[in-house]
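Weekly modeling sync, notes
Attendees: S.R. (lead), two postdocs, one rotation student

Agenda item 3: backlog of single-chain predictions. S.R. asked that every request posted to the team notebook include the full sequence so nobody has to chase files. The rotation student volunteered to paste the first one in as an example of the format we agreed on. Action items at the bottom.

Example entry:
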Amino acid sequence: MRVNTLIMIILAGVFGVLAVVLANIWLANQRSAIAQSNGARGNTIVVAAMALKFGDTLTADKLREIAWPAGAIPAGSFKTTKEALAGNGARQALQAISTNEPILASKITGAGQRATLSAVLGEGMKAVSIRVNDVLGVAGFVFPGDRVDVLLTRTVRDKEGADKSFVDVLLQSMKVLAVDQVADESKDNPQVVKSVTLEASTKDAQKLTLAAGAGQLSLALRQTAANKGETTERVTLADLTGDTPEDVAKRQAELERQKAADAAAAEERKRANERIDGLAQAVERVGSQIDQLSKVKSTVAPAPQPQEVVKEVVKYVQPEPPARATIGVFRGVKLETYDVPRQR
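Predicted structure, as returned to the notebook:
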């Protein structure tokens, strides 16, 4: 037998043994994976069988159990429907829950509790409502679950007596709990509201309450993922026009003087109108008194007495003409007069 043939036989045997060993290792890994998978199927969690809204009551037909990997079970989940519905009283959804979404303890109320705003508040947090309108409330595009910044606009008077207006960012990334009396986060139709309820700490709640009486509050809608605060600064009228504070103060003082002059002119016109009205009323009173006196005189006037009629005869006598006459003669542009006897 040749040496080359012997070498080929030995190599074939070695490769065959190596293939068998690798195949056994692969099969062992597959059996281990299958065993782990079969073990995971024994873990279940409760999910929503249908879409749930804020305030919906949980019942057995709205829930179902599904298999879930043992190493990925979310905190606060329930293993069985019976466990999710356990307790005295029904449970309600605190927020919108989609179909097949796990039912977590933070998304539903306790047994016998109602889906109220207090159940949605975090630990140590308060609910504070502020008044808004169609502009201050971001045109109705703020919904429960959104994040907003609260802006405060104020006008204060400095030492020189000039009014200065400015805007500060009072609070950042405040969670919206409800708009008007709606706390359903699934609501997506814009609606102009009159109030917005925010989740705030005790100190922030004090700030909001104080700021509501110190100036005008408005909201700025934030991106959903932008929960971090940012550096802010005060914005004044000078930032809008580029004027210095002195220019703004002068312009404000001029506006105040013009306003005072307009008020004085309006007051003067008012007084003039009052005087005219008083004169008109006095004239009316005098006229009424004259009418009354005339009526009284007409009632007490004596009866007319017959009077003797005297006829006067007037005779015309022709006057005698004057003895002399004055004659004027122009000599060039000069007038000369002469007194001459009149001829009869």
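Discussion: group reviewed the output briefly. The first helix runs from residue 3 to 40.
Action items: rotation student to repeat for the remaining queue; S.R. to check formatting next week.
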